[in-house]
Amino acid sequence: MKRLFASLFIMSSLVVGAAGCGDDDKDPPPTNPDPNPTNPETVEVSQDITADTTWKAGNTYVLKKYVFVNSGTLNIEAGATVKGENGSALIITRNARINAVGTADKPIVFTSSQPVGQREAGNWGGVVLLGKARLNVSGGETTVEGFFATSGNEQTKYGGQDDAHNCGTLKYARIEFAGFELAPNNELNGLTVGGCGSATDIDYVQVHLGLDDGIEMFGGTAPLKHIVITQADDDALDYDLGYTGKVQFLVVQQSPRVGDRAIEASSHKTTPTQEPISAPEIWNASFIGSNADPGGNPSQEGLVFNTGAGIRLRNAVVAYFKDQAVDVDGEASAALFNEAGDSRLSIRNTFFFDNANLTDTIPFAPNPKVEGGVTVDPDVSRFNEAEKILVAANGVKVQDPQLTDATNLTAPNFLPKAGSPLLNPDNAATPGAGFDTSARFVGAFGTTNWMAGWTAFPQN
């Protein structure tokens, strides 16, 4: 498509230039610019970026197309707003970096260019970060979903051998009304992260009302921390192609109108044993379903593992999913669960409650094999989720988590009530290396609401 091959140059008005020189009569620029400009500007962005660039606090930047940051660093100051028009997205290529750092009271907002009240999921394409970390694909690199594969198009390629690669920083940011389908099974998400490494910093980020997945991690090792994914049209957190990052403090909330899975975990579709295996380590997560009655459309599930994907899940809550709590789908993922020692599919210190309206167990998720319209095997996985997962010795329980108002779509409160068993440190494991070890509670929250001030839940 034409917008994928725009000429590569940058609007000079967007680059941070040096102060004018040669005029001694002019006052020097202030050393501390006003963080609240009285004359905010609206800047249309219709060219790619090839040098260090700063988008200023208070300004609004309107993406007119797919905008690729091909080199340099795109700095976005706290309080800036980025609006996407139909057919636009912001793509940080693997030869560039983003430095978008908001604050709790001045988050960076990526949203639709449509007027408030007319915004909806899929208005624009979202944010894409591409890096040089390992994938489990042939040749070690590929073209990111949401774009047509074109030989020699470096802009959309990701992957490599640098598991510590730094795609940049995205902090205190909201991404709203994003994601769209370029072609069947080829979609952009609210936030797409391909092959980013462990030096990447994605922290305090909300993705709200995305048309496809909230966040999709394609391989790599990028960590996620303080993540809120609300009312995604498809999956909330989707990971595949060998993603092995560390995740802590994660909230997922489904809507009864849309949504598929809180987590869809895949590894390699044709060779599920291909290394690296998708098996992130996730601590302190709250997965909240829509609390709708089982059956009907859409089907909604909690955690689904297929094509050889796993997880090490600790100190989590899985509640109110209308159809399934956990589905270990296929022999390859079941084999990970059965690994000796620190298996790459394991669930510990986790509370399940009111999934498929069950308050004493979790439902069985069979994986039948069908040939020619006939079921030839009722369950190829040979995995009874309740029998395998609900093991008291692993700290896994079916018990009311006593959350404050977790299914409220416009003003949710995910914190546990006073006296909730989630706050009892005896029910929680101590997070390991690379995590906040003080988080001795189950779920994404203890008694502090780290969502305060920077999150929002607009419906249109």
UniProtKB/TrEMBL annotation:
InterPro entries: Pectin_lyas_fold
PROSITE patterns: PROKAR_LIPOPROTEIN
Chain spans, region Disordered: 20-43
Bias-annotated ranges (Pro residues): 29-38
Taxonomic lineage from the root: Bacteria, Pseudomonadati, Myxococcota, Myxococcia, Myxococcales
Signal peptide: 1-18
Name by which UniProt lists this protein: Lipoprotein
Keywords associated with the record: Signal
